[in-house]
Design a protein that fits this description.
Length: about 325
């Protein structure tokens, strides 16, 4: 089994994380049958040093460091390229995901499911994050055709066959859950106790959360374009109705003064909608442009084990672009 964890600003948490994972694997009688892949997403603290120190102490720890910060999902993709286990567990580095719950995920995968997500009991996130997750869940249900009731948590398990399909995606804007939903419908979920963060504060603020939401919406769905088309059609019908109303009104009330307020309001509304639609089209074109120009999904600066990625056996240089 492989456990892939992106690491960012977790210098003090890494030793605790490694110890708890080792204890959980011992309980599951998998002490010699797992690897812990820690991906340093160019963390500004000494997280990479903590990873390399633990890699020297524990043979199951495999460290990867990226040349710059690519974001959580891209860092996960980097780890998935190196994951060799028959089953792959994805989790966060802050210990809010208890390693003791890995057994539940493993049991679900062994029973035949391709993917197993987790549902948080006693969620420890702030109110704005919980509200944002509900909104994101609603959008994902319609945009990505996510099964209703399935919570897209970052703590999940995948079979290696699914991982191989996921890492075929080479675009610069990875959204792991969108890729999973594109690959399989054999998905289940289990309940876990959500823990408080072991140290420090969460790395996701409102700006990053909005960026992730926009990535999900524009990278794996054309719903915004269809929405823009619908708005344009509705505005065209509304404009036609207003033209008829104004024409009739002009014949019935020839001395009625024309109002600048309604005219300016209409112009601003139509102009705003046009700008919004052009922005959506530009977002899609921009992402396509960056992919055509091969903007890297991640760039590996080095590893603690010097092994090329599983599906890139010809790569001999430790600096690896995807």
């Amino acid at each position: 089994m492989s456990i892939v964890i992106p690491v960012y600003r977790s210098e003090t948490i890494v030793p605790k994380l490694v110890a708890k994972v080792a204890d959980a694997m011992h309980t599951l009688h998998l002490s010699n049958r797992f690897e812990l892949v820690l991906v340093n997403d160019c963390s500004p603290d000494d997280s990479w040093k903590a990873i390399t120190d633990n890699a020297r102490l524990h043979p199951f720890v495999k460290g990867i460091t990226l040349r710059r910060n690519f974001g959580q999902h891209n860092a996960v993709m980097a780890g998935l390229h190196y994951a060799r286990g028959r089953y792959v567990i994805l989790m966060d580095d802050d210990l809010q995901h208890p390693p003791e719950s890995i057994g539940k995920l493993l049991e679900a995968l062994r029973s035949g499911y391709d993917v197993c997500y987790t549902r948080y009991v006693g969620r420890q996130h702030a109110l704005w994050k919980r509200l944002g997750s509900r909104f994101n869940d609603m959008v994902a249900t319609y945009a990505l055709r996510k099964p209703k009731g399935l919570y897209l948590s970052s703590f999940k398990g995948l079979r290696q066959e699914v991982v191989q399909e996921v890492i075929r995606y080479d675009g610069p804007y990875a959204y792991v859950d969108g890729l999973i939903l594109d690959v399989t419908a054999s998905i289940t979920s289990v309940d876990i106790e959500h823990q408080a963060r072991a140290d420090g504060e969460g790395n996701y603020n409102l700006r990053l959360s909005l960026s992730l939401w926009l990535k999900m919406l524009t990278s794996f769905s054309i719903l915004p374009l269809r929405l823009a088309t619908g708005i344009g059609f509705c505005m065209s019908v509304f404009s036609l109705i207003m033209i008829l109303v104004i024409t009739v009104h002009e014949f019935l009330h020839t001395d009625y003064p024309r109002g600048w307020t309604s005219l300016i309001a209409t112009i601003l509304m139509v102009g705003g909608i046009q700008t919004l639609c052009l922005g959506l089209i530009g977002e899609y074109l921009g992402r396509a442009y960056l992919k055509v120009n091969r903007k890297p999904q991640f760039v590996i600066a080095g590893t603690t084990f010097g092994m090329p990625p599983q599906n890139r056996s010809s790569a001999s240089n430790p600096e690896h672009h995807v």
